[in-house]
Amino acid sequence: MSRSRAFPVRALCLGTALAWLAPLAALADDCPVPGQWQVAGGETLTTAGLMAELARSEVVLLGEQHDRLDHHRWQLHTLAALHAHRPGMVIGLEMLPREAQPALDAWVAGELDVADFLEQSDWNRAWGFDPELYMPILHFARMQRIPLLALNVTPALRGRLATEGWDAVPEQERFGITPPAPATPAYRASLEAIYAEHADRDDDPADLERFIAAQLVWDRAMATALADAAAQGPLVAGLMGEGHLADGDGVPYQLDDLGLRDHRSLLPWTPGPDCEPPATRADARYVLGDESAFQPPEPPRLGVLIGDHAEGVLVQGIAPGSVAEAAGLAEGDVIVTAAGRPMAQPADLTAVIGRQAPGTLLPLEIRRDGERQEVLARFPPPAS
After folding, report:
1. CATH of the domain at 123
2. Could you report the per-residue pLDDT of 92-150, keeping only the tens digit for each?
3. What residues does the PDZ domain cover (predicted)?
4. Same domain as 322, residue 271
């Protein structure tokens, strides 16, 4: 039996069950107001008018820009609305790999406090973005006993599958992930553009192909977890970066290839002064107001590219004009301690820097040319 189900067009004014929200030449005086949803043809709907229909889907994807507080607030409100219509639901998270599933289960069961959850899930190493952005969603899931699902796989596994090939990785280590469908020309072009933005990339065509292959593995891994969960019957809501679902590429495309076509993609949208819609498409967009004044301040940044090292954290690059450059750090340095804490992995340094207050000094013990020395990283005062 097909798993696809028609999506009632009368409720969404979509024209067809899979119609996209296309770019519109909207005028400022026709701009939807915050709190409304915009669908194809420029039609606007309220949350109440949309959620009952969305909740009948097998999978609903909620895109985000990872550091946007208002995006995570929107996700929470949307999850709560979906849950009101369909309490039997699961929330999937791009943020964590399959290995973190026991920590997610223990969190939902109320067995862990925040500190223990972050440690047992290895949040800082796996994701790195401020967990406070996600904690309201995690608390909501625990309060309602909504299962949380780790959608991702580790970068190491993505890299192995992309570079060594599928046959080189034992099936029991793949978490049931099958080879992805090839990228569409449009998706490939977008990935090539992302690749080109990174100055540390070289011009090796093979490196580009490895990058694209790794991104496809990433999409396929999340799609596989979503499809497996949906096969058990609940509504599955997936939280992920907007690049993984915009324009029907990425995860939606891989879901189609897996035979699950009853999925919807939602994105937030903050209209500008001219109300010019974004170029990317989704099944529906939620209109946000200008929340920039309430956005958390930029986190402190040392300005280094870092990697693993047997004795600490290896400095692989220094950003021009950065705190690290001013402190005298150099490529090849090994950071042994930060603020007196031993550094065993890059996530340890990331966590220390994340707690650094503006206008303060961070003592770093480094190993350079076989000798230990201390440097002081001076973080700028808060912006006035």
Report:
1. 3.40.50.11550
2. 999 999 999 999 999 999 999 999 999 999 998 899 889 999 999 999 999 999 999 99
3. 291-370
4. no
pTM above 0.85, yes or no: no
Burial class (CB in 10 A: 0-12, 13-18, 19+), 203: exposed
32 and 178 fall within a common domain: yes
Number of residues that this document lists for the chain? 384
Q: Note down the domain range covering 73.
A: 9-294
CB atoms within 10 A of CB 176: 12
Token pair of 303, please? 């300005």
Q: Which two tokens stand for residue 5?
A: 């189900």
- CATH no. for residue 346? 2.30.42.10
Residue 268's closest CA among 293, 254, 289?
289
> Among residues 241, 270, 294, which one ends one of the domains?
294
Amino acid present at 278: P
Q: Sorting pLDDT into bands at 50, 70 and 90, what band is 23?
A: very low
Residue 171 CB partners (closer than 8 Å, separation 6+): none
* SS3 track for 241-261: EHHHCHHHCCHHHHHHHCCCC
